[in-house]
Write a structure and sequence with these properties.
Elements lengths: L3 H13 L4 H8 L3 H12 L16 H10 L5 H9 L7 H11 L18 E14 L2 E12 L5 E6 L4 H15 L5 E4 L6 E5 L2 E4 L1 H10 L2 E4 L9 H15 L7 H16 L11 H8 L15 E6 L5 E4 L2 E4 L3 E2 L2 E2 L4 E6 L3 E6 L2 E7 L7 E2 L2 H10 L4 H10 L3 H12 L4 H15 L1 H14 L4 H15 L13 H4 L9 H5 L2
Parallel strand pairs: 1-4, 4-7, 10-16
Antiparallel strand pairs: 1-2, 2-3, 5-6, 8-13, 9-10, 11-12, 13-14, 14-15
Length: about 500
């Protein structure tokens, strides 16, 4: 809206001071045509409404009647009706008149409710697109919690919103906050609320068990009333704009590390717009009013009973994990075991004894195995060593499997190539060999020497040196032994 004062100043700057119209437009943040009209109307001695506004005059009675009967009728809908009655002007003019006629919409007034320190926190999930893990696009979610009095914020990221993940996020958040508030307000998440009818709420029993252990009261916000947890709603928007947009991440751990730094240096160190204090400073006071963490932590692991398959594997989230085919003198195949998983580790328990432990894989359709498990199986079937070696390469990725098929179609000794590629796995690791095989497939150059050349080219471009070839003794048992590298700093600590 151009006020008379703004119009007068535009006229003075253009006519008296000799400023260019474009310069004046930039100063006032308007289009140059607005400045031209203001200057022209002043030069002509009057600044009344533009002549085009009179185009609505013949239709004013009809517009008023329609808006009286149907107050929510839009200007676009009225335009269609007026076209049939001879209106030939733009919708902009019509909108101006409709805005004058239509009764102003009432806006809700909200009462700011301040709480005592340690009284209330608010929790919510936010969706942040997808994160690539291996060959899979995983949905990325942010768990946010805000202490209402201090406005201190905690955020963590995950690749799912399962119940075990939800509870694990709470445990980390309470540890970060240094205690537990009396009440925590939630939206109607299925992890928290099963049914919500009026003021009657049926909470998820699994979540109530966690709340009972942590001794806080869960509160379900009214349906379709996000203002009940406005602090965390605003925090999710703040996380998007201040932290997430414009950043790149190498994986879920990188997301968490950058988020932790942002919380420490930006989010909780800024002057909050409402309290006019730093959340970190107010948190020092509020922390003393929080309930202490329980002596025994709540078990937030995912626990799933399952039967070991005939391949001596258990399955989680489309991935398979190897287990020893026998334990304590009896076969494990067909036995019921318990799989326990958190963000980083998958453990398999038989009769409460851990018989296998793996790093959790967040890719999909991967076979995760320990060499000791496979070697034990191969001792029973030595003839399976050849297929097993090829399977290890083929399971790297669909591109790697296609590369092996192309090798088999050519006049190349397959077993020899598999041996060479397996040696490259020991040298470079699975990720680099898989990329080299896919690059060779793309360039239609087949052979382990080409794969190695492509890997070395990529390393050279990244400024990484070539690895040293392993020492071969000629002793098959020694050469095929799998040795886990150790951190040499452990030995330095002995001195």
């Amino acid at each position: 809206m151009i006020t008379p004062e703004m119009r007068a100043e535009m006229r003075r700057l253009v006519i008296r001071e000799g400023w260019k119209i474009e310069t004046v437009a930039r100063r006032f943040g308007v289009h140059h045509s607005v400045v031209r009209r203001a200057v022209a109307s002043d030069r002509e001695g009057g600044g009344g409404a533009p002549p085009a506004a009179s185009a609505v005059e013949p239709f004013k009675a009809y517009i008023v009647e329609r808006l009286t009967d149907y107050p929510s009728l839009t200007a676009t809908r009225l335009l269609l009706e007026l076209r049939e009655r001879g209106y030939a002007h733009s919708v902009t003019i019509l909108r101006r008149y409709v805005a004058k006629v239509r009764a102003p919409r009432s806006k809700k007034a909200y009462l700011r409710v301040e709480t005592e320190p340690g009284e209330v926190a608010q929790v919510d999930w936010g969706s942040f697109g997808h994160l690539r893990i291996g060959n899979t696009q995983r949905p990325l979610s942010a768990f946010a919690i805000v202490l209402k009095w201090s406005r201190v914020l905690y955020v963590d990221f995950s690749l799912d919103q399962r119940m075990d993940t939800f509870l694990r996020m709470h445990a980390r958040a309470f540890a970060f906050l240094g205690g537990i508030p009396k009440k925590v307000i939630y939206d109607n998440l299925k992890s928290v609320v099963l049914h919500h009818v009026g003021t009657t709420v049926q909470f998820n029993p699994a979540f109530l068990a966690f709340a009972g252990h942590m001794l806080f009261e869960p509160v379900a916000a009214p349906v379709r009333y996000p203002q009940a947890k406005g602090n965390v709603e605003n925090a999710i928007k703040y996380i998007r704009t201040s932290f997430f947009y414009g950043r790149s991440f190498q994986g879920i751990e990188d997301v968490r590390a950058q988020a932790a730094q942002w919380l420490r240096e930006v989010a909780n160190a800024r002057i909050h717009a409402t309290t006019r204090e730093r959340p970190a400073d107010r948190h020092l006071i509020e922390k003393t009013r929080l309930r202490a963490l329980p002596e025994h932590p709540f078990d937030t692991d995912l626990v799933v009973p399952m039967i070991v398959s005939k391949e001596a594997r258990v399955h989680l989230d489309t991935n398979s994990y190897s287990v020893p085919h026998s334990f304590d003198g009896r076969s494990v195949v067909g036995q019921t075991v318990h799989l326990r998983a958190d963000d980083h580790t998958v453990r398999v328990l038989l009769d409460r004894i851990v018989i296998a432990e793996h790093a959790r894989c967040w890719d999909r359709h991967r076979a995760i195995e320990l060499p000791a498990h496979i070697d034990a199986l191969l001792e029973r079937r030595p003839s399976a060593r050849g297929p097993r070696r090829r399977d290890r390469l083929a399971t790297l990725s669909p591109g790697a499997a296609m590369y092996l098929k192309e090798i088999a179609r050519r006049r190349i000794h397959l077993e020899s190539e598999v041996r060479k590629l397996l040696r490259l796995l020991d040298l470079y690791g699975e990720a680099e060999v898989e990329r080299g095989m896919v690059a060779a497939l793309t360039q239609r150059t087949f052979g382990a020497r080409y794969v190695r050349a492509l890997i070395d080219q990529a390393r050279f471009a990244a400024g990484v040196a070539e690895p040293l070839d392993p020492v071969v003794t000629g002793n098959a048992a020694a050469d095929n032994a799998h040795v886990t590298p150790q951190d040499l700093e452990k030995y330095d600590a002995l001195y």
